[in-house]
From TrEMBL:
<keyword id="KW-0812">Transmembrane</keyword>
<dbReference type="GO" id="GO:0016020">
    <property type="term" value="C:membrane"/>
</dbReference>
<dbReference type="InterPro" id="IPR050367">
    <property type="entry name" value="APC_superfamily"/>
</dbReference>
<keyword id="KW-1133">Transmembrane helix</keyword>
<protein>
    <submittedName>
        <fullName>Amino acid ABC transporter permease</fullName>
    </submittedName>
</protein>
<dbReference type="Pfam" id="PF00324">
    <property type="entry name" value="AA_permease"/>
</dbReference>
<dbReference type="GO" id="GO:0055085">
    <property type="term" value="P:transmembrane transport"/>
</dbReference>
<dbReference type="InterPro" id="IPR004841">
    <property type="entry name" value="AA-permease/SLC12A_dom"/>
</dbReference>
<keyword id="KW-0472">Membrane</keyword>
Length: 499
């Protein structure tokens, strides 16, 4: 027996289907808070600094403030939706309920691209740190990538509860490293000399030996071009709702954890921007660094001590790598459980209830993309590879945020009567502000001649995924909790009521 709706067809599955796809609840508020920070904290270690070359210190600062405001708006909207729809599908679940199967898959696919590539970028930046610490040649970076994914998958085999504990411990250590850097950098700060040492030249940013340059060396355009790198300082915090079916009390804790996470990340982002740029050798050098925090420690302590401290700093990148990889697995798990991806990918471990197949699939996709970008030009230009990956991630993230904000607005209208344990204090204004900032960020990605091809590459991936759904998977869906909730108008499929 099959049932169809909105151009899709549902297949009938037996009780055993869902028995093979179960998760365990074990995460409280503090765990969720640290998971939210851990998913992003690598963005304070590497990747963001390329924005200094795009907009100078002032341009990057304004970009970070604009994007930070956008994420506050987004987290408030997501917090309301995650409390009302506490499914592990996260963004896909929100859009599926508000925008139908096509809207659900379109949003889930955008998140899939983002969550596959975000830990891949973190692994790339982490390998750059590890190569600097251990003195391995740049040509050996792919070996670090393989080793990282092997460790992550090995950890997942022990169960998600243990994996989450590891992420929490590592995240706390990563935050401590950043705060330590802020404190030891204070005696070396000379803001006007170092943070403002970027000037505009015909061929790009020029170093000003005595500093005291303009706040906006590239004008308003520089601010706009720095937006994608501001995004990287906060990107992936929105993955937190993917843990809803593993949270002890998602309707209460998820909104709180989202807001606590973004406030923490904004404070860390402003601190790392100010202190990294305000010490020798300043913003110009940081704008092209592959490991900015390591370079900051080198400036303060010299090369020997810097390597020791950087080995601890790798924890920040590891936290985001692990958290992002698990999010990628949960995204694939939820889309697979509902039939948007091959259903075999959502089978969980009999003992640990861990979606190992989904994790392995996301890891394989990430490694493939790392190798493709590496051989397309990253091998000879580390800064280019980092920027290319960040630009692809930002493109997918912006598409996802726009769709989630539209879903929020639609849910407010179509499902006005469903229980909302948390209501966004910014309401519809927050959703409209998110959409506007995302559109501007997307548009300016295509103004950058170096990274526009990254956005195009992400768009091609997106188009291939949509074609796969249109011509094949839309006739093989399953009434998972997210689908049942949407099809029944919210009367069925609520994990907490039926758990």
């Amino acid at each position: 027996m099959e049932r169809g709706t909105a151009g899709v067809t549902y297949q009938t599955v037996d009780k055993q289907y869902f028995e093979q796809r179960q998760l365990q609840r074990h995460a409280g508020l503090f765990s969720l808070w640290m998971m939210g920070v851990g998913a992003v904290v690598a963005g304070e270690y590497s990747g963001w600094n390329i924005g200094l070359a795009q907009g100078g210190f002032g341009g990057m600062l304004l970009a970070a403030l604009i994007i930070g405001f956008m994420y506050i708006c987004l987290c408030c909207s997501i917090g309301e939706m995650s409390a009302a729809l506490p499914h592990t599908g996260g963004a896909y679940s929100f859009s599926r309920t508000a925008l139908g199967p096509w809207g659900g898959f379109t949003t889930g696919l955008a998140e899939n691209i983002e969550f596959v590539l975000a830990p891949a970028a973190n692994m790339f930046f982490m390998s750059s740190y590890l190569a600097a610490i251990f003195g391995t040649p740049q040509s050996a970076l792919p070996l670090w990538w393989v080793a990282g994914y092997v460790v992550m998958l090995g950890l997942s085999l022990r169960g998600l509860e243990l994996s989450m504990k590891v992420v929490i411990y590592v995240t706390v250590a990563a935050i401590a490293v950043l705060v330590f850097f802020f404190v030891v950098a204070i005696p070396h700060v000379d803001f006007f000399r170092y943070a403002l040492n970027i000037g505009a030249a015909a061929d790009g940013p020029a170093a000003l030996a005595d500093g005291n340059g303009p706040w906006l060396p590239f004008g308003f355009t520089g601010v706009m071009l720095a937006l994608p790198f501001g995004v990287y300082m906060f990107l992936a915090v929105e993955q937190l709702p993917l843990t809803a079916e593993e949270a002890k009390n998602p309707t209460r804790d998820m909104p709180r954890a989202l807001i606590l996470s973004i406030v923490t990340l904004i404070a860390l982002a402003l601190g790392v921007l100010f202190f990294s740029a305000s010490i020798p050798h300043g913003a110009h050098a940081m704008g092209s660094s592959g490991e900015p925090l390591l370079d900051g420690f080198r400036t303060i302590f010299g090369d020997g001590w810097a390597k020791l401290l950087a080995s601890v700093a790798v924890l920040g990148l590891a936290a985001s790598f692990f958290a992002g990889s698990f999010a990628s697995g949960r995204n694939i798990y939820s889309l697979s459980r509902a039939g948007y991806l091959p259903t075999a990918l959502s089978v969980t471990g009999a003992r640990t209830k861990t979606p190992n197949r989904a994790l392995a699939t996301g890891s394989a996709m990430a490694l493939l993309m790392l190798l493709v970008v590496w051989y397309l030009g990253g091998e000879n230009n580390v800064a280019f590879m980092g920027g290319f990956l960040v630009s692809m991630i930002v493109f997918a993230g912006m598409v996802s945020y726009i769709l989630q904000s539209i879903a929020y607005l639609r849910l407010r209208t179509l499902y006005a009567s469903i229980a909302r344990p948390f209501a966004s204090p910014l309401g519809k204004f927050g959703a409209y502000a998110t959409i506007l900032i995302c559109i501007v960020t997307l548009a300016y990605q295509f103004f950058d001649p170096l990274y526009r091809w990254a956005a195009i590459a992400a768009a091609v991936w997106y188009a291939i995924g949509l074609a796969y759904f249109a011509f094949y998977r839309r006739h093989r869906l399953v009434l998972s909790p997210e689908e049942e909730f949407a099809v029944s108008g919210g009367s069925l499929g609520h994990p907490e009521r039926e758990g």
